[in-house]
Amino acid sequence: MAFRRLLSAAVRRRSSAAAAAAAGNAREASTAVAAGPGAIAPDAPAARAPVMAYDRIADAVNARVRRLEHPDPRFLRYASPVPAHVDHTAILEAPETKVTTLDNGLRVATESSLSSRTATVGVWIDAGSRYETEEAAGVAHFVEHMLFKGTGTRSAGQLEQEIEDMGGHLNAYTSREQTTYYAKVLDKDVPRAMNVLADILQDSKLEDNRIERERGVILREMEEVQGQSEEVIFDHLHATAFQYTSLGRPILGSADNVKSITKKNLIDYIQKHYTASRMVITAAGAVKHEDIVQQAKELFKSLPTDPTTTNMLVAEQPAIFTGSEVCILL
Ligand SMILES: [Zn+2]
């Protein structure tokens, strides 16, 4: 029960949207941290663009409100007679996102809310189906399946049992741009969840018999996706918008590829794309930033450290927007 993966493509898409939002937040936060509070000039807050709707209309309202020449001081004791710009940044940025970059390039981003009794910890990887080669399309999603199928120290059953014993929830999804593994657990189980994530990411066994069994699972998932018109439409949309590029292909790849992907394809993809600098360890809820940084340092020691960035890979193989039209008669 606790160990479920998203087979439903609809859920998959919702999750990608959430992740995209989360990644966006992380990037913003990262930028904010890089600039640092000390880097902001003393008069900077005044120059900041208004951030809430009623701030934006404050000027327009001010222009129309006639100032009273002799306002009754009783009404002005606690407030301004006209709407005023207020800097809400501090409220909007709470809880603060803290980001630390480790020596190997791995980033750790956390948001603490210590009144919470639960936490979500995860690994967001800047790698998805758009980084696949045409011959191995579908490998990113295949890897995601295989990382739940046993490690050097935990069999697939033990992995499942361990999360279930915690009353936790381990999940993953693959999108065109990202792959994510995350666990929702009680506060006391955060170190164990981190340990499981580090284990599946760095020491998955990728056994041949498991690979063969997983082909069937993925082919059935493909059939399921084919039956969901909202999924099929988005695949067509990508295919028409980015013709003959990796972004134009469906995330699951083709059935022929799923039948022929090899263990070497899986290992190559992990080695090339699951690199430290393209990963963010994220934690939100009942966590302390320093604890997560410490655990990440101890647990994620054997990630590949290839410095190639996604920008470099995209520049090598850009997915140019072609646009076109497809008409499907039902
Ligand atoms: Zn799947």
Molecular structure report:
The chain has a domain at 97-316: Cytochrome Bc1 Complex, Chain A, domain 1 (2-Layer Sandwich). It contains 15 helices and six strands. The protein has helices spanning 9-35, 44-47, 53-56, 58-64, 73-76, 89-92, 139-146, 156-165, 190-202, 208-226, 229-241, 255-260, 263-273, 289-299, 310-316, and strands at residues 97-101, 107-112, 118-125, 169-174, 179-186, 279-285. A hairpin with a 4-residue loop joins strand 4 (169-174) and strand 5 (179-186). 34% of the residues are buried. It binds zinc ion. Zinc ion is lined by residues 141, 145, 221.
Labels describing this entry:
disordered N terminus; 6-stranded mixed sheet; 12% strand; 330 residues; 45% helix; binds zinc ion; Cytochrome Bc1 Complex, Chain A, domain 1; globular; alpha+beta
CATH class of the domain at 97-316: Alpha Beta
Topology as a string of helices (H) and strands (E): HHHHHHEEEHHEEHHHHHEHH
**β-strand number:** 6
What ligands does this structure carry?
zinc ion
CATH superfamily of the domain at 97-316, by name, is: Metalloenzyme, LuxS/M16 peptidase-like
Mean pLDDT across the residues is 83
Strand content: 5-15%
Helix content: 40-55%
Radius of gyration: 24 Å
In the CATH hierarchy, the third-tier topology of the domain at 97-316 is known as Cytochrome Bc1 Complex, Chain A, domain 1
Lateral strand order in the biggest sheet: 1-2-6-3-5-4
Distance between the termini: 37 Å
Largest sheet: 6 strands, mixed
Q: Which structural class should the secondary elements be placed in? A: alpha+beta
GO molecular function, one term: metalloendopeptidase activity
Cofactor: Zn(2+)
Domain Peptidase M16 C-terminal: 260-327
Pfam families: Peptidase_M16, Peptidase_M16_C
